[in-house]
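INTERNAL AUDIT FORM
Audit reference: QA-55
Scope: verify that the stored structure record matches its stored sequence.
Auditor: D.O.
Record contents follow.
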Amino acid sequence: MFCCKKSVPGERGEAKPVDFPRLRYIGMNRLGFTCRQTGHLNFGEWLDLFEAYKQQYNFEVKRMLYKLEEKEEKISSLDEL
């Protein structure tokens, strides 16, 4: 079914084989599904769940979802302190 895919849809060139054991590994160890549950996910649903996982992982690692603007005021003299 999805044994080969192109890296960009509509792109001309060779299709690369899909690494199904890697998809199952990520589904089991990163997304928390059993082997059977991972096998029953369709590819689109798996990609949606993995995108959500990536956002959560980045939040946990970076400790923020977005950059906060740092407003630094210039101090021109010591009298302003």
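Auditor finding: record pair retrieved intact. The first helix runs from residue 20 to 29.
Action required: none
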